[in-house]
Amino acid sequence: MKFPDWAEYGLIFYGGPLAIIMTYKNHLKLRRINSMKDYFINEFGLFDIDSESMYRYGKQLVLIYNSHGTSIPKKIARKVYSLYQRGKFNQIRVELAKIYPEIQYMKFKTIYDMFSFIVKNTQHRTIDIDTEKFLPYYRCYNPISIKKLNEACWAARKAVEELNPSLKPPFPIIVAVIIGIVALAFIQNGPKYVREAVAYLEDIGNAAEGNFILWLKTHMILGLQSLFGG
Fold first, then answer.
1. CA dihedral 139, 140, 141, 144 (to 10 degrees)
2. Of the residues 105, 132, 159, the one at which a domain ends
3. What is the pTM of this model?
4. Shared domain check, 201 and 107
5. Smaller CB count within 10 Å for the chain: N or C?
């Protein structure tokens, strides 16, 4: 189990935006974002702040980064932020040149142009799901995280199935409802159907009886005629 470092313990009562930074040891570090307009700095480097790539967990704003193995002394990071608050931009350049020596020979119109160059050079832009698929990328190198991810997926799948059940279970209920409706209709209209059926059978019987008497009379007449030679 990995315990939080002192900087992460300091976030207990912090309610501002957070940076989740992947280090060169494949660890995730939480750091507060002390804004320098569209940038911030800590011991893992200088990073940009892209509002369109912010994630919101409840009321907490979160940005995700990959440090790409970069590290700078905490003392320099704190000093750069302090100088920024006091507007000492020339001194910021001197401090950052200790880590990024190439900037001392370059010309920048503003301090933010220098920040942008460093961010681009170190690939410290905000990561979103549409660019590097960061979370799956991180998890595939962590067996424990893979196990937890699979467990979470199965739990989510079960929850979705409970919210949207299959159509098979309601079938017996539907059949029972249909049978009940038919039975109720029969009970309400049964005597009428029975009377109509009895009347229909009586009509058939009467017709049959009449035909039989006619047949019998006809054959009796024919028999008498043949007997007396009529």
1. 60
2. 132
3. 0.55
4. no
5. N
